User: Fold this.
Amino acid sequence: MKHLLSTADLTKAQAIELLDIAEDMAEVRTREVKKLPTLRGRTVVNLFFEDSTRTRTSFEAAAKRLSADVINFSAKGSSVSKGESLKDTAQTLEAIGADLVVVRHSASGAPQVLAQSGWIHSGVVNAGDGTHEHPTQALLDAFTIRRRIHGSSSRGADLQGLTVLIVGDIVHSRVARSNLWLLTTLGAHVTFAAPATLVPLAIDRWPVDVVHDFDEALAVKPDVVMMLRIQTERMRNAFFPTEREYARLWGLDQDRYRGLKPEALIMHPGPMNRGLEISSEAADSAQATVLEQVANGVSVRMAVLYALSALPDADILGRPE
Assistant:
């Protein structure tokens, strides 16, 4: 059984093929009947140990549009809150017929443990694990960029030569990590802009430029500016002096937004902290892709579920085990 655990596992050809499948899935949204019979008889379990209405709902919509049966499992109020282990929970879900398990967990590496431990035989999709990765978010971001850049001719296209600036809370961001691996694989040049306190250790080993001045990073006129949410729930007021100071130095405010080149894209994985990392003018502008990212997330997740479940012999996400 195959899994999607990290964008670092995808080759360029595999990533482009997934994005192309997502183009097919996006066409389903335009139909009167927005469903395909592809996964009829299959069961997808959303196993969420962390709250995330946006991601869970997107995976649920994706599975249902493919005609799969969906079981939503939340750790709160379940046996997990009584001390049940990840292993026992996963095996219980497989015993009731799970074909694919979509996992979101606060511990980095939890989806990998499920996929590689031999505890279950279901396919595993990483829906976000700790500060490690969020591969489907990166795929939907790449899909959104590709559509904006290439339009109707996006099928088969990569992101060669594109400059992407990812700004803010890098150290806590699984979105930044997944985007770095995927966008680099697709040919884009990625730069991180963040205060030194919000940059991971050993980042010099990553294929990325790091800048500690937002205005300096914007001076090169990037094609894409991706603002990250400040994850206060993972902080203890020790990473920057005040929110006001952060917004002044690192927020995409009105002046910085107006200094972007007209065709530059403004992205945010959501939810947004308006007035902190991004101004309302920037977030609501025609250059912003925030709502497109949400809509495209369903198409991309349909593509992932289809590739894992309906194409068991296809070499899209790696060779079968």
